[in-house]
């Protein structure tokens, strides 16, 4: 997710190194339909307006979003993709925590209390409990909270955490490694490093509560992002048992407050963090320390919706190419100093949602391809990829008959770049399709500059990859034609610090759309090539998702 209006004439006016890029992009556009920047501007401005209230699942903003997307796809002549319906129901529960107590730790040298909001956030995955209370729960530090038998690593070894509160570090033990080798891929985060995994494993171990220590560098965002994302209405996937197997409470705590907690148990947090990075780490009880927290939940079951639009193929309509983006954002969130409490989600992800329509429009203008093309706008990405996960478990179009596709999340409005950053570069044969499209523009694909941030596990393509489907996901590059890498990194840092998951991610009429246009052409080219070929791209040999894909294709 990253941090944009100039027309082609402005692109052509760029200085020397950019001239060839812009000229190649213009040449490429002459050979294919042109994704419309006017369509992008119109829809991003509409979707991110205050009238949509931040597009939270289950809100009036969702109803407006669904109606808009169905109308846009319908006007283009696409077909409702889910057995005659534009929509796929996604069962969710909205949980609104209230009367939240402080998170208190007693029994140590001195009591430690963390206030809800500025010092800790708390919630639950349990969907049938109007009241949560964790009282006098023994506290244990479990390092990175990883149980990975295939790597010979178990931070829970020899420990029974039933009824206990586990305190966990974010990211992987080797995230500070400069290279990409190590027990957990070195600097490149694995799924074991994601906060979602930490809570999943804590629940499997039987923990009553799971608290992650927030640290800005390994988390990849500041406390402001945690606070805005974890306060207000939260959305959880519904289940028959109300997610009874989950921990009662899950949350985050500020690192400074965690240091005070460890000190109260006679431990040094920095020393314990260093120990947790080493193989053979053993969990450390915070002797005598017990945790307590309570809160009430307003629970509302509802069915949010994925939007499914189909452009039928002309000769092989039972083979599908998938385009995905999430339409949702945070709704009303932690207010900015000026009182603005709507997280509009203009970049994240009104841009990707609008791109679905712009790409559908371009494909309609160019005419149908041999294979069918599916345009999927999913819900509840911000709640943990819930909409795409539901589609993954209940695909409208079988994955064995889905060729592959592209995912779009937060298109870059920082301007035209010489490169694109591929999330998961080298994992699948889709890279070859991307490289051909980039070559036509005089651009290149580069590795993630910050693999420790774990972007591969933070957007909807991951939900499909888990089912074996190759998906291409890239972000606008940081080597900008105007200003180079320094300008690109500054733009990305500014967005993360000042707008990401906050009320100021709003539409700006002064955005530079040249990079968006170039990237849209790449998505269009890759998708259309996939829809015309007879190939079935796969994961590379040895990739974690290859066996699933091979099994699906063999069954077909």
What is the percentage of strand-forming residues? 15-25%
Regions with pLDDT < 50 over 5+ consecutive residues? 1-31
Helix content: 25-40%
What general outline do the C-alpha atoms trace? globular
| Main sheet overview | 17 strands, mixed
Key terms for this structure?
single chain; 556 residues; alpha/beta; 17-stranded mixed beta sheet; two-stranded antiparallel sheet; 32% helix; 24% strand
Describe the structure.
This protein is globular. The protein contains 16 helices and 21 strands. The chain is of the alpha/beta class and 556 residues long. Helix 12 crosses helix 15. Helices cover 32% and strands 24% of the residues. The N terminus is likely disordered.
Quick rundown:
By secondary structure, the protein is α/β, with parallel strands linked by helices. It contains 16 helices and 21 strands.
Describe the secondary structure blueprint for this structure.
Elements: H1 8-12, H2 16-29, H3 37-47, H4 60-76, E1 79-80, E2 87-98, E3 103-106, E4 112-114, E5 120-123, E6 131-141, E7 147-148, E8 153-154, E9 165-169, H5 195-205, E10 209-214, H6 216-219, H7 223-230, E11 234-237, E12 249-254, H8 255-264, H9 269-276, E13 284-311, E14 316-326, E15 331-332, E16 342-343, H10 346-366, E17 371-378, H11 386-393, E18 402-407, E19 419-422, H12 430-441, E20 444-446, H13 461-465, E21 471-476, H14 484-498, H15 514-532, H16 546-555
Parallel strand pairs: 6-9, 9-10, 10-12, 14-17, 14-18, 18-21, 19-20
Antiparallel strand pairs: 1-13, 2-11, 2-13, 3-4, 3-13, 5-12, 6-13, 7-8, 13-17, 15-16, 19-21
Helix pairs in contact: 3-10, 4-10, 10-15, 12-15
